[in-house]
Amino acid sequence: MSLRVEGLRVRIGNRAIVDGVDLGVVPGEVLGLVGPNGSGKTTLLRTLYRAITPVAGSVHLGQSTVDEYPRRELARRLSASTQEPEHAASLTVSEVVEQGRVCHRGWLEPMRAEDTEAVDEAVRSAGLAELRDRDVRTLSGGERQRVSIARALAVRPEVLVLDEPTNHLDLRHQLGVLGLLRELAADGLAVLLTLHDLRLAVSYCDRLAVLDAGKVVAVGPPAEVLDEKLLADVFGVRGRIRESTLDIMGPV
Ligand SMILES: Nc1ncnc2c1ncn2[C@@H]1O[C@H](COP(=O)(O)OP(=O)(O)OP(=O)(O)O)[C@@H](O)[C@H]1O
């Protein structure tokens, strides 16, 4: 199922944080949303799963807008891994990942075999098997990040949205998570994620959308989008892509 954003605008106070964005991601694709701090990436993602209501524009999931879906059906089709504050309650890793199945069966219903299977697979994929009985409040930042990803994976959605999924992760786990997203896309998932590491974005994303001050200033294959001028103008760095690898020489 495809996700498409048309003419999206979000205002906070009298400031346009997302300023007329058109964007789409299709099944099988990993789309990277990149841009400097404060460019509106998180705000844009939050409109997709209805955490924020835009002042204009629409978000389409398949043939319908996200507002037309009952909440639970939207949650089954589109799941998100967000940058969350620390967990307040005492829950185990498994219990948090199991929350990803609530949209399939309801809060009061017991876990079914398919729920347990989805949770087990998500826990394994996120490298959390040995931590599954741990209290989430005792986890490191990177471990908590992987719990958030596992909960989104446990939904088994059609569209997966991730806000800086590599944040806090060591390099091995960064590559592991991005490799996993590529595998899931190969199986037909549509993946939209934000990333700060442009080198990883170039290596793992099919297309990049560059957000600057709330506007998409470029979208397309990484090698076409990240030219020397854009790297300097938007990111303030000197760099270029050579043989599908981004070299960063330093600040402008
Ligand atoms: N609730 C709010 N009240 C006031 N300003 C806000 C609010 N939420 C976001 N903003 C502002 O909107 C702008 C975009 O924020 P957003 O978090 O979407 O950026 P981002 O691209 O995800 O940034 P980062 O790379 O730092 O995570 C920022 O200037 C931020 O300060």
Automatic annotation (TrEMBL):
CDD domains hit by this protein: ABC_Iron-Siderophores_B12_Hemin (cd03214)
Q: Which residue range or ranges hold the ABC transporter domain?
A: 3-238
Q: Say which domain of life the source belongs to.
A: Bacteria
The answer on whether this UniProt entry bears the keyword ATP-binding reads: yes
Query: What single Pfam family name could you report for this chain, choosing any that match?
Result: ABC_tran
Instruction: Name the UniProt key words of this record, in alphabetical order.
Output: ATP-binding, Nucleotide-binding
Q: Which residues form the signal peptide?
A: none
GO terms (molecular function) for this protein are:
ATP binding
InterPro entries (alphabetical):
AAA+_ATPase (IPR003593), ABC_transporter-like_ATP-bd (IPR003439), ABC_transporter-like_CS (IPR017871), P-loop_NTPase (IPR027417)
Q: What is this protein called?
A: ABC transporter ATP-binding protein
Q: What is the lineage of its organism?
A: Bacteria, Bacillati, Actinomycetota, Actinomycetes, Pseudonocardiales
